[in-house]
């Protein structure tokens, strides 16, 4: 079905301030803002990809900050094909939150949902509080791909969305 256009919904989840909005803005607009970005222009941003002749329309959903109030409900992630679960490598408490999200998304969206776990802020390696080994082992155990990124320095960001898209294409 090489001529098919695949429409995929992708959600970003994770604790507030881990860099979800920054990852999206780096990927789509190639920009970075050192302030916490509280205003959202739209509930999702679009990205068109062509992977080996397969056309993909990504709708990448960002939160409006509801995660700060633990109020990110099923309306946000329903019908998602994939999810990017983000933690901050300098914030130990942000990693257990990813584990909660893995359980929630698998329960609500089923085992086929494609999950990518992302440790962001690798430019702050000196302040690392989540070990790479722990994150890799956990990701493998739950069948998720693991990436490390810096939205600030533009490291690994494209790999996240390409890796997830390839996985979603395999499942499609
Ligand atoms: P969100 O609440 O998860 O959407 O997080 P934001 O994207 O608003 O980012 C929260 C804060 O972390 C902001 O001050 C960003 O500038 C900062 N930030 C995001 N990504 C990085 C990164 O890769 N490195 C560093 N040093 N700071 C980052
Ligand atoms: Mg945000």
Automatic annotation (TrEMBL):
The way this protein sits in the membrane is described as:
Lipid-anchor
Q: Which domain of life is it from?
A: Eukaryota
Keywords (A to Z) from UniProt: GTP-binding, Lipoprotein, Membrane, Nucleotide-binding, Prenylation, Protein transport, Transport
Signal peptide positions are none
Q: GO terms for biological process?
A: protein transport; Rab protein signal transduction
GO CC terms of this entry: endomembrane system
Localization (cell): Endomembrane system
Q: Major location, coarse class?
A: membrane
Of which family is this protein a member?
Belongs to the small GTPase superfamily. Rab family.
The protein depicted here goes by the name Ras-related protein Rab-21
Q: Give the organism, scientific name.
A: Oryctes borbonicus
Lineage, top ranks: Eukaryota, Metazoa, Ecdysozoa, Arthropoda, Hexapoda
Which part of the entire protein is covered?
Answer: 1 to 172 of 213
